[in-house]
Amino acid sequence: MVAVALLLALSAGRPHAESILARNASLESGEEGWLLSGDFDITLSAPVEEALSKGITLFFVLELEVNRARWYWFDQRSGITAQSYRLAYNTLTRQYRLSAGTLFQNFATLQEALSVLGRVRRRPMLPAAALVPGSVYTAAVRMRLDLSQLPRPFQASPFAAREWNLASDWLRFPVSP
Question: Is residue 114 assigned to a domain?
Fold first, then answer.
């Protein structure tokens, strides 16, 4: 009995490895505007992975905010945008489908799908005129599981909120056009 209580206490104090970790990000100018590149490590908790395997579609959101600091007033928000991704499992074909808009790709394993979801390369996020040359900006990027897109029973449970609240911290980096 004491061993079980000790194991429960140790596991409760340990931080959860199920989350999203923003490793790096950059914003560069391109023909389509400002392009975002970045890497995220995505690890799903057991309940989230089980719900996905039972046919619940997961919606992830990649968010970008760009601000310019001003000494005389609040920071000027130069751009804010988001890109949504859908991750679904098809039990008939036993494949995971990752969708962004009308584009989609199928994967044999969940790890492959999460790897591609976490690898953002040259994604158009802002128009070219959003940032003024010669100014210094601070960009912030994060990825999160959009809980508002889940079915109602998954949104209402306060006990499962910790296991379902998957989001990276804001990763901030300077941008100088």
Answer: yes
Domain that holds residue 68: 17-150
Domain presence at residue 142: yes
| Domain contains 164 | no
CA gap 75, 30 in Å, rounded: 25
Q: Exposed (0-12), middle (13-18) or buried (19+): which is 147, by Cβ within 10 Å? A: middle
Q: Is residue 3 included in any domain, yes or no?
A: no
Domain count, the chain: 1
Taking alpha carbons only, the member of 116, 111, 57 closest to residue 87 is: 57
- Would you call 109 helix, strand, or coil by DSSP? coil
Query: Which amino acid does the sequence have at 174?
Result: P
CA–CA distance, 104 with 86 (Å, rounded to integer): 9
Rounded CA-CA distance 132/176 in Å is 9
Phi, psi of 130 (to 5 degrees): -70, -30
Per the CB < 8 A criterion, the answer to whether 109 and 45 are in contact is: no
Q: Which among 31, 120, 121, 27 is positioned nearest to 79, based on CA atoms?
A: 27
Question: Rg of the chain's alpha carbons, rounded to an integer?
Answer: 19
pLDDT digits (tens, 9 = 90+) for 109-168: 999 999 999 999 999 999 988 888 888 999 999 999 998 888 877 666 555 567 788 999
Both structure tokens of 96: 């995971």
Global pTM reads: 0.83
